[in-house]
Amino acid sequence: MTTQDTLTIAGRAYSSRLLVGTGKYKDFEQTRAALDASGTEIVTVAIRRTNIGQNAGEPNLLDYVPPSKFTLLPNTAGCYSADDAVRTLRLARELLDGHDLVKLEVLGDPHTLFPNMPETLKATKTLVDDGFKVMVYCTDDPIQCRMLEDLGAVAVMPLASLIGSGMGILNPWNLRLIIEQARVPIVVDAGVGTASDAAIAMELGCDAVLMNTAIAGARDPILMASAMKKGVEAGREAFLAGRMPKKLYSGAPSSPTEGLITAGPASGGAK
Hints:
Blueprint: E1 7-9, E2 12-14, E3 18-21, H1 28-38, E4 42-46, E5 71-75, H2 82-95, E6 101-104, H3 117-129, E7 133-138, H4 142-151, E8 155-158, H5 172-181, E9 187-189, H6 195-204, E10 208-211, H7 213-216, H8 221-241
Parallel strand pairs: 3-4, 3-10, 4-5, 6-7, 7-8, 9-10
Antiparallel strand pairs: 1-2
Helix pairs in contact: 1-8, 2-3, 3-4, 4-5, 6-8
């Protein structure tokens, strides 16, 4: 990729198109090592599950993931209503000295962690009206994604498959529809399991990929973080390059045929 190919969210440019979560690692040291290996510049923080200063005397994530190096993306993991999500992000803004870039997720049930879209839309409107720059986790429904954009979301984040499932992209056709209509960045969020999933998302034209469990749940999280970095970069380059058309078969050889040494006309025999 060229140095000019940057991801722009809420007016700020980033060189990495991989966003990484900070949960599920064995400790904060491993969290930081994985983030460094991934090359990420934007990291999500589950405000209800991670100490960023609200619990005095406990280890603080910000000691390992400082805002001076990373753009923090407070999220509402574990929230099941618009009111709860809005309250959580207002707390995050206070803890982070007015930080306004946030990730909204309002879940529908604890089993699938599927988004509750009516509550998500409600929370998006409230947060945008309150001055937040909202990135929104949502279903891969093109109509709902357009509604979120119309409400003022700075990025729309459709799931590839269920959170933590590692099932990869189950509906690439919907993602293509979402990408084609979008005027804000489209970030695949949830369901990525390995580097090839990230590459496919980027080849489809997504602007970025967000993941947590795919890295933290790997046998070697640091090595997987490095693999995800390469997968995202390869997928982006392939998208920019433009793949060849798919064909059922082709008689055209891949190597030039001009100038090949061929046998002369057969001598004798019937003509």
